[in-house]
Design a protein that fits this description.
Blueprint (H helix, E strand, L loop, with lengths): L1 H19 L8 E13 L6 E12 L8 E8 L6 E7 L3 E6 L9 E10 L2 E11 L6 E3 L4 E2 L5 E6 L9 E7 L16 E5 L3 E5 L10 E12 L2 E13 L2
Parallel strand pairs: 1-15, 9-15
Antiparallel strand pairs: 1-2, 2-5, 3-4, 3-6, 6-7, 8-10, 10-13, 11-12, 11-14, 14-15
Amino acid sequence: MARRYLNLVILIGLGLTFCETGIEINLTCWVKQTAETFRARSQILGEKKWAMVNLSWGWTVKKPDGDSVIVERSPGGEEDYTYLGSTDVDTVMTFTDKDSILTGWAWYTYRLSLVAGERVDEFKKVDVDLPGYIDILTPGTDSLSIPNDTLQIVWHKLKEGGDEYKVEIFKSNATEPESLVNLINPIYSTTTKDTMITVEVPDSLYPPLNGYIIRVINSKLVEFVTDTATGFRAFFRLP
C-alpha cells in the first residue's frame, strides 16, 4: 500500500513539473505551436497577405508504435476536418501548414491522429489563433525623394500582439512577396514600443536609385505558443 501511494505521488509530481515548464500535456504528447501572418505593400510587390502555422510535438512517456501521424484542420469550433498530410512517427515531429486558405484574425483547430495498421486513433486537438496583420502606412508611395535624409515609418498598432516592434530596413530589389521572409543583413535595425519612428538615411548608407524594404515584426510568446506578425513595405529612393 505504501509503495502504491509513493508511486502515485511520483506521477503527480512529474505531471506538475511538466505543467510548470509550459508544456501542454494530454496523456501522450506535448505540443508547441507557431502562428505567423505576413503583409506586403507596394506597387512593386503588390498588396499581398499570407499566413502559416507550424506545429511540433513529442511524446511525454515514449514514442508509440505506429506507421504515421495524420494532420487535419478545421475552422475553429467545427468538426468538418480537411486532411492536410501525414508524417512518419518519430521522437519529435513537426508539420507546417502554408495553405492559402489561412488568414489573419482567424481561429483553426488541428487534429492529430496516430495510424497503426488499419487503426486510426485521435490523440490531440490544437486550437490556433492567427494574429492580425501589420500594415505599414508610411511611406505610402513606392518612389521617394527624401529631403534632409530623414525617413518616417508609421504602422498600425497590433492590439493582440507583444509590447515591442522590431523595425529593419534592407537594400533589396525583391519582386516576389514570399521571398521577403528570407531577408538578411539589414542596413538598419531597432526595437520600439511606439508605432512610429524617424530614421536618418544618408546617401552614404542609402544611395539613391536603389530599392529598399522596410520590415516591421511583432512577436508574442506565451509558454509554448508563439504568434508573429510581419509587415513589409518596398520603396525606391529617387535622387
